[in-house]
Amino acid sequence: MNAMETARSYTPYVLEKLQQLLSIDSTTGDYTEIQAWLEAEFQALGYPTASLNKGGLLVELGGEGDHILVNAHVDDIGLMVRYINSDGTLEVTPVGGLKAPSAQGENVRIKTRFGKVYTGTVRRTYASLHTTPLAEREVLADFEKNIVVTLDEDISKAEDVQALGICCGDIVSLEPRFAVTESGYIKSRFLDDKACAAVLMAYAKYLKDNNITPARKITLLFSMYEEIGHGGTAFPGNDYVEYLSLDIGCVGPRQYSSEKKVTIGVKDSRYPYHMGTVDALAKAAEAAGVDYVLDMFLPTYGSDGDGALAAGHDVRHSLVGPGVLETHGYERTHILGLENNLALLLAYLK
User: Fold this and answer.
1) Which pLDDT band, with edges at 50, 70 and 90, does 238 fall under?
2) Span 150-166, average pLDDT
3) Helix%, strand%, coil% for the chain, nearest 5
4) Are 297 and 252 in contact (CB under 8 A)?
5) Largest Cα–Cα distance of the chain, in whole Å?
6) Among 126, 245, 153, 257, which residue's Cα sits nearest to residue 162?
7) What is the C-alpha separation between 134 and 56, in angstroms, rounded?
8) Smallest Cα–Cα separation from 34: which of 305, 225, 302, 301?
9) Which of 250, 248, 228, 226 is nearest to 299 (CA)?
10) Strands 171-174 and 107-111
11) Angle, nearest 10°, between helix axes 191-209 and 32-45?
12) Which of 128, 158, 235, 299 has the CA that lies 20 to 30 A from 70?
C-alpha cells in the first residue's frame, strides 16, 4: 500500500483514539489522568516512555541518528474558578485562549481539589433574555463583567458552594461534544490538538504493527502546556536536530488551509518555520500524493516548536496539521484531513 492507502486503513483507529482522548478532561495544568492514559497506551504497544517533571510524556520509537522530536499537545483551553459570588454562582477566568462568547451556554465539569466533580453551565449574569435590560442584551459576553458558572446543585449562597469543597483555583472543563457526520466531518471542542495526538498514536501503532524500525531516531513528545505557551520548552537530551509539531491549520478567510487537507506551516505570529524542513515536507507530500497546502497563521498563533526555539534549543522547527474550522471554539475538521496528516508522517519519517 502507498502512504495514502496505509493512512486510510488506520482511520478507525484514529477515530477511536480521538474519542478516547476527548473523553478525558485535560484543561491546561490538569494533566495527570491523560498522561497516565497515554503512558499505558504506549507501554501496551511496547514502547519505552518517560515523564517530564512539569508534566509531559516522551515516547521512544527507536531508530539511530538525525534525532527528531515529533510533538502534539493534549492540554485543552478551559476555565478556573476565580471567586464564589454571594448567590452561589462562580466567577471564572480563562486558561488559554478561550473567549467568553464561545463558552457561553456550554456545559462544564468542575473538579475540586478534594476529588469531587460537579456539573454546571456557563451563563450570562442575566440568564433569562426576557428579564435582561435592553442595553445589557447588546453587551458582548465578558468573563470580567457578565459571565458566571451556575452549578447543578441546590445552592443559594456562597457557603453552600464552599460546603461542596469548591474553591478558588478549581479547574472548570468544557464538554467536548464529539460527533462524526455521515459525510466525514468531525465536530468537537479540542480537536486542537487531540486530533493530532490521535494521528501520532496511529503512526506509532503502524510502526509496531509492521515491525518497522525508523531510519532515523524518533522521539514523541505529548506536551501538557501548549495552550499557555511553554509546552515545548523543556525536554531532556541535546542530540535533537529537528522539532516537528503536529498542530492544527486554521481554516477561514485569507487562509489556504482546508479541513480535507494537511497544512504545512510556513510562518506564525512568532517565527517563520525552518525553510529547509518546510521544503522537505512539501517534497515528501508531493512524492506520496498527499493533499497538502502551505499556509501561515496570524496574528496570534504559536506552536510548541516556537517554545523550543525561545528556550534556546538548537533545532530546525516545523509544523504540520489538519485544517480545522472555528479554532478555539466548537471546532470541525474532516476524516480526509487526518488521513492526509498521517500519510505525510508516513512519507516524511520513513
Assistant:
1) confident
2) 97
3) 30, 30, 40
4) no
5) 67
6) 153
7) 48
8) 225
9) 250
10) antiparallel
11) 20
12) 299
Q: Which of 258, 251, 246 is nearest to 341 (CA)?
A: 246
Which pLDDT value is given to residue 216?
96
**pLDDT tens readout for residues 24-78:** 999 999 999 999 999 999 999 999 999 999 999 999 999 999 999 999 999 999 9
Tell me what pLDDT residue 27 has.
98
Residues 319 and 265: beta-carbon distance below 8 Å:
yes
The tens digit of pLDDT for each residue in 116-127 reads: 999 999 999 998
Which cell numbers hold the place of 36?
Answer: 497516565
Catalytic site positions:
226
DSSP code string of 266-283: EE-SS-BPPHHHHHHHHH
Q: How far apart are the first and last CA of the chain?
A: 14
DSSP state of 76: B
E strands, 165-213, where?
171-174, 179-180, 185-188
Beta strands in the chain (DSSP E): 49-51, 56-62, 67-73, 78-84, 90-95, 107-111, 117-124, 147-151, 171-174, 179-180, 185-188, 218-223, 240-246, 249-251, 262-267, 292-296, 316-325, 331-334
Q: Identify the pLDDT of residue 135.
A: 86
Cβ within 8 Å of residue 283, ≥6 positions away: none
Q: What is the pTM of this model?
A: 0.96
- Residue 27 is given by DSSP the state B
In single-letter form, the type of residue at position 154 comes to D
